[in-house]
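thought: fold this chain, then report.
action: predict
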Amino acid sequence: EVIENLNSTHGALLRINRSIQAEGAYGTIKWNRSYIRARRRGLKGMFLEIALISCAFNLHKHHLKKISSTIAA
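observation:
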């Protein structure tokens, strides 16, 4: 059943949409924020670093959204 769902047209569209969403955020972090390489070693260190970068990315998006809503109002 799982393989049938993945191979269906709807499953293919969901996989395409998911890859686009993840690549957009990753590309923005790499290109616009100049994140080139990891600074920490080990699984825990990498998890911490990715978590901090993700939090910073989301806070920046929230900040931009907040500014744009105050300018428009």
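thought: worth noting. DSSP finds three helices and no strands in the chain.
final: tokens above.
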